[in-house]
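Hey,
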Amino acid sequence: MTSFDETSLTLLQKVQANHADAWDRLVDLYAPLVRYWCRRSQLQEEDVAEVFQESFRAVATSIKNFRRDRKEDSFRGWLRTITTNKIRDHFRRMDGQALAEGGSVGQLKLAQLSDPLTEAEENSEQDILRASVHKMMEAVQGDFEPRTWQAFWGCQVEGRGTDEIGAELKMTPAAVRKAKYRVLRRLREEFDDLID
């Protein structure tokens, strides 16, 4: 179990305070999404790796400036802006190198970066986000007794009633609700700044 002082900081606050383990967790959660955005922009695999590194380097240098001042501000949106800018930078460099050959391909790719996602692409992004949410849950699961986690999972994920779960786990319905609340509170404490 973690102490209250540790759980009072969200993952993003820990990253802003330069906690190495928090940075590793943040990269683990968001790497698939950044790679997806890069691949969607039709980057070659070696270019995906380069833009990925540049994007997270930019996050590392400016993470302390991230704020959620408005309701619509989100970490994912901020990260997407950084990644999109790094992709544009990459295509500008490539276009500059290929200017004698016409250079219009790079301009076309730059224009496509602001295109809205197709339904299939949106579904792919949602699948990646769901996988990230599962990673978030796995990150805090060990902080709870198995029965507490099962009560949370039954209520929140499976949508079952507290009476049914209570009978199965030999808990009162009130204890099931309390278990659900404790896990949700912990998830919010850890990941609230990252959840849109």
